[in-house]
Amino acid sequence: xxxxxxxxxxxxxxxxxxxxxxxxxxxxxxxxxxxxxxxxxxxxxxxxxxxxxxxxxxxxxxxxxxxxxxxxxxxxxxxxxxxxxxxxxxxxxxxxxxxxxxxxxxx
Length: 107
Fold this sequence. Notes:
With about 110 residues, the protein is an alpha+beta fold. The protein has 2 domains: about 1-30, no CATH class; about 35-100. The chain contains 4 helices and 4 strands, in the order E-E-E-H-H-H-E-H. The protein has helices at about 50-60, 65-70, 80, 95-105; strands spanning about 15, 25, 40-45, 85-90. A two-stranded antiparallel ribbon has the order 1-2. It has a two-stranded antiparallel sheet with strand order 3-4. Strand 1 and strand 2 form a beta hairpin. Helix 1 (about 50-60) crosses helix 2. The two termini are about 10 Å apart.
């Protein structure tokens, strides 16, 4: 079994073995968080391009949660898909942590 840190975006991933019996990720489910009245909306700035971690750092103080914002906004390739002026939905940290906890408990 892959050694994946709890709360990582790979926690609910599906792994397989390569020809050398090393595990690699083949699939993971997106984290889904329903919209709430507490969501904020952030407009992508130039400094965010190719740096989705700066968005998570700005709003959550936790750059490692960039993947949550990307999942919620259906962005699969943040290095290519983030555009200046794009508006992102940012769920509150409390709902993010609850969703991650649910994801971890389903394993």
